[in-house]
Every structure is written in C-alpha cells, then in structure tokens.
Write a structure and sequence with these properties.
Length: 328
C-alpha cells in the first residue's frame, strides 16, 4: 500500500515507518522536525512540512493516491499542555482536522490514529477497559479525545471510511538493533530519564511521590515496548485493509511496574548506582494505570514479543549508550 505517516520522524512514528517499509509498503513521511529527526526515517520518503500548511497537504494528497494515513504528529508533554493549552488544541486538534479534511476530499479510505491513555484521566480501576469513561484532566488528553470524536463522526458520515485509534499506555525501549530510538529533546519519559542519569547526563533524577496506595508507594504504569507497539499499527493497517470495522483499542501489556521497579531494572542494565531524590507527588498522577488488552489481541491478532521490563530497559540502555557516543 501507499501510506502517509505524519510525525514519522518522531519516536513512535519512526519505529512504525521502519516496520511498514520492512513489510513492503511504500511510505511517505510528513514531519516538521520540531522533535523528530530526519535520520530516523529509514527507507521512506521524507517531506519536511507542517500539518498547518494546507497548500502542502493539498499538493501531497494530489501527488499521491494514499491507501491509508497513519497519524502520529502531535505535541505530547502533559505539563506543557497545562501551561500552554492553545498550542495543544492547535497542534493536536486543529491540525488533525486539517489533515482529515484532505482525507475526506481525496476519499482516503483508512486512518490509523495515535491516541493515548490520557483520555481516561485518573480512572479508579485495576485495569482500564476501552469502555472506561473518558475523563481527561489536561489539555493533552482532551485534545486527543476530541480527535477521536472527529474520527468517529467522520466515519459515521462516510460509509467508505474506516479507522483504528490506538490508545497508548507508557511507551518505552528502542529498536532491538539500536537503529533508532527516542531522541526527543528534554524527554520526560521515566526509562529514558533514568538511563540518562545512569550515563551521567543528568545529576540524578526524582521520584514524584512515595506514598501512593501501591506495593512500594510509587506509581505503577503499563510499559509497552515501542517495537511491539509499532507492530500493533502494522496489524491495524492489515485489519482495515481486510475490511475491519472502526474501533478503538488499548495498547499495553495488562500489567504494570512501579517507579522503583523501573529504576532497579535500569541499575541492572547499566551496572550504575545513580542518585535518586524522593519528592512530593505531582498533580494529576494516578496511582496506577494499566491497560486491559484483550480487545487489541482479539481484534488485531496482536501478540507482544518483547513484554519484559528488563528487555525494554536493555534496549533503551543500548540506544542511550549509542547516542551518547555520537552514533545515529
């Protein structure tokens, strides 16, 4: 298939692009490189540009008869979304609308959408189901929930359009061969931050809250390997191409690891004891956030292969070592 991948030079988008290329698809990546990296686009055409540029989108859709769009381009930092909400409603919602207007005009049949567990807010459940009510508590989550509504409304209005929205939990790790990984500037993801602390690139790190109602008092999250997550997108594309119905699916492993467990895994991988400071809770952090994943397994036939915390951390550590030495 001929595919458009927006944000395909970013962390998750680049891993999906690589797997799509390896599966034999023809891929065009659109990325403004605000957080993505051109060298992360392997085997695909890279068009540098922004989703706010309607003329560019018109030209791109006119030049290519896309079979599907995989949409990753977005702003994703929760605290920034609270401080600058309009940026998130522009980048995440208005620009998605801009893209979907071209999907509608050119009758592109399929979209695979990058969503987030942030649409659920702070659910008080052991595992989050796709039917758990949406209650986002920040503009990032709200902007993504709006995108899901737009997709659903478009699908209701147009019988020949179908989509899959994947709600990510905590994405981590890197390509097992260390070809690509996370290079987001000033990243806030726990595993990357801990690896940077172990490398001495940070003067240690912080645990935000040690009094949660969890086994060791720290937050528990469902960490999913980026390679497994990327495969879910390839599976979603195959599902849509085979006539699959519109659907929204959680992407996680169905079990969690605490902050302390993650830090221990980074110590095992690196062999380094790095400074860790304990501080008070951050507003809006739920004690635990774990995905129920029966639907993604049953609907897409998705089977995770790297669902082990030490494996996730080992691949992240290998990647951080590589870029610390100036490799790409």
């Amino acid at each position: 298939m001929k595919l458009l991948v927006t944000g395909g030079a970013g962390y998750i988008g680049s891993h999906v692009t690589l797997q799509l290329v390896e599966a034999g698809h023809e891929v065009v990546v659109l990325d403004n490189l605000s957080t993505g990296r051109a060298h992360a686009v392997i085997g695909a055409e890279l068009v540098v540009g922004d989703l706010a540029d309607g003329a560019l989108l018109d030209a791109l859709f006119a030049r290519h008869d896309f079979d599907a769009v995989l949409h990753f381009a977005a702003s994703i930092v929760v605290p920034e979304s609270v401080a600058d909400p309009l940026k998130y409603y522009v980048n995440n919602t208005a620009n998605t609308l801009n893209l979907l207007q071209r999907v509608e005009t050119h009758k592109t049949p399929h979209v695979v959408f990058s969503s987030t567990a942030a649409v659920y807010g702070m659910p008080d459940v052991e595992q989050v189901q796709e039917t758990t009510p949406l209650a986002p508590i920040n503009p990032y989550g709200a902007s993504k929930a709006m995108d899901e509504r737009i997709l659903d409304d478009l699908a209701s209005a147009r019988a020949d359009f179908h989509y899959v929205a994947l709600r990510y939990f905590n994405v981590a790790g890197a390509d097992p061969g260390a070809r690509i990984g996370q290079e987001t500037p000033a990243a806030t993801h726990l595993i990357k931050v801990a690896c940077q602390a172990a490398l001495g690139e940070r003067d240690g790190m912080e645990i935000f809250g040690t009094d949660y109602p969890t086994p060791d008092g720290t937050c528990v999250r469902d960490y999913i390997h980026v390679h497994d997550l990327a495969r879910a997108h390839v599976d979603a594309l195959d599902y849509l191409a085979g006539g699959g119905a519109n659907t929204i699916l959680n992407c996680g492993y169905g079990r969690g690891a605490s902050v302390r467990e993650v830090l221990d895994a980074v110590r095992r991988a690196s062999g380094v004891e790095f400074p860790v400071r304990e501080t008070r809770r951050r507003p809006g952090d739920p004690p635990r956030l774990i995905a129920a994943n029966a639907c993604v397994r049953e609907t897409l036939g998705w089977q995770p292969r790297l669902d082990d915390l030490d494996t996730i951390v080992a691949h992240a550590w290998a990647w951080e070592q590589k870029i610390a030495l100036g490799g790409q």
